[in-house]
Amino acid sequence: MPSLNSTGQPTGHGWRTSLLIVTAIIALPMLVIFASLLLPFSTAWQHLFETVLTDYVTNSLILMIGVGVGTLLLGVSAAWLTGMCDFPGRKILSWAFLLPMAMPAYIIAYTYTGILDFSGPIQSLLRGIFDWQYGDYYFPQVRSLSGAICMLSLVLYPYVYMLVRVAFIEQSTAVLEASRNLGKRPWETLFQVAIPMARPAIVAGVSLALMETLADYGTVAYFGVNAFTTGIFRTWYGLGDLTTAAQLCAFLMLFVFALILAERWSRQRLRFHHDSAQKKMARMQLKGWRATLALSIGILIVSLGFIIPAGQLALWAATRLQENFNGDFLSLLFNSFALASLASLCCLIIAIFLAYTKRVFNSRLELGAVGVASLGYAVPGTVIAVGVLIPIAWLDNQIDFLSKAWFNYPTGLLLSSTIGILVFAYVIRFLSVALNTVDSGLTAIKPSIDESARSLGATPARVLSRVHLPILRTSLLTALLLVFVEVLKELPTTLILRPFNFNTLAVRTYELASDERLIDAALPALAIVIIGLLPVLLITKSILNERSTNE
Amino acid sequence: MNNQLILDQVTVKYGAMAAVSDATFSLAEGEIGCLLGPSGCGKTTLLRAIAGFESVSTGSISLHGEFISTPKHTKAPEDRAVGMVFQDFALFPHLNVNKNIGFGLNNLSGKEKNLRITEMLELVGLASVAERFPHELSGGQRQRIALARALAPNPQILLLDEPFSNLDAELRTQLAAEVRSLLKKNKVTALMVTHDQDEAFAMADKIALLNAGNVVQVDTPYKLYHKPGSLFAADFIGKGAVINVGIDAAGLLGNNLGSLSLNTLPEDFGNTVKLLVRPDDIAYDDTSDTKLEIVSKSFLGPNYLYELALNDGQLVPCLTHSHVDIAVGDELPVQFDLRHVVIFNSD
Predict the structure, then answer these.
(1) Quick one: residue A117, left, alpha or beta (phi over 0 = left, psi -120 to 50 = alpha)?
(2) Tens-digit pLDDT profile for residues A488-523
């Protein structure tokens, strides 16, 4: 906490300076990416234009449109069923709909590949029943653009579901009744009032899902789809052209910024849609075949998004458990946990610093700085990795040059590919997760609480230790957990920046899957999914609380 | 006159609990009615039953000669020609004023629809806000737009659920008078719900007083105030105190209150009666020998409201000019004026 003088006013410019330095360091990789546009465009661009660039753009666009529609349909249906209707099984479904969040897209992608490909259980069964041979029948190809759209939609719809469900629940019943009163049937009310009123929540949810779509590398790479992220990887690893990779990143960021704007705009609109005092729940009671249909739709969505792939992973993991549960796996676990713990601690400390600075100073400069620092959630991990790599490589070269010149000793690449650099990239990407949690916890502590503690004779330090920390404890733990899980799941950043021969659960899963060793990949994948369930449980808890206050 | 709305022994249940039982009430065409009562008395439930949001378990509701709610059949809300102004106005936040008002005009062509919207906007005097969104309107404007929206489809009855409760006190009385004259001018049959008797008096031709799910009295505002049919009505409506007074066969009251003429008394009055004493039934009189101790007083601007103790300690109110300023603990000379006092049998 910044030092306060006797009247409680913040003193010292040290805090502001350190805030600006922290923000500048966090913003550096992004600035590097955009600065790359000022560099001359290499001949690689000629090649890109002639061959794959159109593919990158069109495929990424089709992917976004497809996932946008997919998450919209799945998310809004799920939100409508559990937020506005009532039928047997609704309560279980209302948290089960969140389960797919635990499933990273690249894991569900390779699991379905295993389930649906030629030698998988489904096609084998069909051949067995109908006595077909290879080529006798048509079967949709999972490893395709439309396959990627399905996979991403299945695991990203919870973003839409969560926001839209809250929007539906908070909609005033009076407004829906007003629509009936003015002569609209229930279905007309749904499409003319309830869904349009939830539009800001829908836009915000879909924007978040699309940010994840743009950030995805594992799925598109595994399915062989030429999208922006795969293009950046290929330019860097294939052509070894970091500048062109950075320039591609900058173009990718144009899409990202459009999404950020859409999301911020819609969150602002959300305010206008909450002016009702009446929030009495009047769920539509579904009976008979309608209730059966609702339950079936729910079970279908949850099965496709979680139960089937998780079950398949568990089966695979069990068949090879004895061979695969060995020292290598334990060291994978250790690496992943150590890395995730380190990164989440760093995020938490910086988040506390930023949140307090914002609270105490709360002027335009601080708000702006904090806003910049929390943009990372929207930036694809691939972009951050390239943005980190360039300045660090430059720094390494300088050190190497100086060291050779002064001591005649080549240092090589001192900083590149170290754990520290990897953690730095994680912090940029996931700081906003921690910051949002800490910030909302801190906002809940009204300034009057500080003032009353001070007037009761507590020093600022005592206010922090006796009042703030106990109140914030849950928020701080939540922040740690959320970042921990995000880091554990993150694939592209780790792939690009990890030290040589340093493996994590995510990287190992991806490598094994890419080598078509799907069954061996199941154990690390399952570990990620199980740990990924922790935040889902947290959100479930808050849904359960909301239920006890609402019903 | 034809009855536009008839509630016949309506009971509405939430599970096993009856929120309203055996409510009977009717409104003639063009009449403005009011359901008045304390919170939880079932008045809003009754209004929602008329709108079709609740089903009746006994009795019936008919509108313009057609049964719209019976235990066997509840006509869907969207199929009833019932307009409703909601307590929080329930304007659609995603639609501008024009579209809010046009929302219920499904059967009109585009041109007719626009004409009707313009007509409604002029009716409520808000043509200037046609393009605005609900969050850009003031509370009073929202209320009038909600009114215009409910009236636009030309409903057979307009329901208003606590229509003024979301507005500040000053705006409330002004708008109540405005809304009444607007409804009267357009011959709209309307039924409002409120817990505020001042609103009810300002708006209604006819008031149904509800208590604990029962209609206890249906009367004009004047009669409800001056001729309350029950102790509950006497207590709920207006200021005043109900006191127990001894009485002899000739009508002479105890406590030096004077006497009541026998023809105003119920036939079989006993040794005591209950009297509803309004503040204007006891007048300040400098020359009077009857002096009562002042227990408390409150300054109302033009008046003082005194609380006085009778000989036996029961308290009665007294309204004086605010220039009559006597300290608490001293005595106030008063004259009893029992011509309008309401008498209940003591039981």
Answers:
(1) beta
(2) 999 999 998 888 888 999 999 999 888 888 888 899
Contact between chains at B52 and A273 (C-beta distance less than 8 A): no
Closest chain B residue by Cα to residue A282: B53
Alpha helical stretches, state H, chain B: 43-51, 97-102, 110-123, 139-151, 169-185, 197-203, 221-226, 231-236
Whether B79 has its CB under 8 Å from any CB of chain A: the answer is yes
DSSP letter for B248, please. Answer: -
Determine the CATH number of domain B3-235.
3.40.50.300
Helix (H) or strand (E) holding A280: none
DSSP string, A218-231: HHHHHHT---HHHH
CA gap B98, A270 in Å, rounded = 21
Bridge-based pairing of strands B291-299 and B241-246 is unpaired
Considering only CB atoms, B51 lies closest to which of A181, A185, A192, namely: A181
d(CA B293, CA B308): 6
A-chain residue closest to B101, CA distance:
A182
Q: Is there a contact between B94 and A277 if contact means CB atoms under 8 Å apart?
A: no
Superfamily of chain region B239-345: Nucleic acid-binding proteins (2.40.50.140)
Q: Given this model, what pLDDT does residue A551 score? A: 39
B72 Cβ under 8 Å from any chain A Cβ: no
pLDDT one-digit tens code per residue, A404-417: 888 888 777 777 77
Domains of chain A: 1-38+320-514 (1.10.3720.10), 55-316 (1.10.3720.10)
For the segment A277-325, what is each residue's pLDDT rounded down to a tens digit? Answer: 455 556 788 888 999 999 999 999 999 999 999 999 999 999 888 888 8
Q: Answer whether B3-235 and B239-345 agree in fold.
A: no
pLDDT tens per residue across span A60-109: 999 999 999 999 999 999 999 998 889 999 989 988 999 999 999 999 99
Q: Which 8-state DSSP code applies to residue A444?
A: T
Please tell me if residue A129 touches chain B, with a CB cutoff of 8 Å. no
- What sign for the dihedral angle of Cα B265, B268, B271, B277? negative
Pairing state between β B315-321 and B303-309 = antiparallel
Q: Tell which wins on pLDDT, A360 or A405.
A: A405
Question: Distance of CA B63 to CAs A145, A181, B157, Å?
Answer: 59, 15, 8
Which residues in chain B are closer than 8 Å to A277, comparing Cβ atoms?
Answer: 87-88, 166
Alpha carbon distance B163, B151 (integer Å): 14
Is the separation of the CB atoms in A422 and A495 below 8 Å?
no
Give dist(CA B259, CA B79) in Å, integer: 59
Note whether A172 contacts B: Cβ–Cβ < 8 A.
Answer: yes
Percent of chain A at pLDDT exceeding 70 = 94
* Residues B330/B294, Cβ–Cβ less than 8 Å: yes
Q: What is the DSSP track for B256-302?
A: T--B--GGGS-TT--SEEEEEE-GGGEEE-TT-S-EEEEEEEEE-SS
* Interface ipTM: 0.76
Domain ranges of chain B: 3-235, 239-345
**Between residues A156 and A271, which one has the greater pLDDT?**
A156
Cα–Cα–Cα angle for B253, B255, B256, rounded to 5 degrees? 75
Query: For residue A192, which residues of chain B lie inside 8 Å, CB to CB?
Result: 103
CB of A182 within 8 Å of a chain B CB? The answer is: yes
Residue A273: pLDDT band with limits 50, 70, 90: low
Q: Contact B141/B126 with Cβ under 8 angstroms?
A: yes
- The H or E element that residue B84 is part of is strand B82-85
* Cβ <8 Å between B135 and A275: yes
Q: Sheet containing B282-284: which strands, arranged edge to edge?
A: B282-284, B331-336, B291-299, B303-309, B315-321
Contact status of A180 with chain B (Cβ, < 8 Å): yes
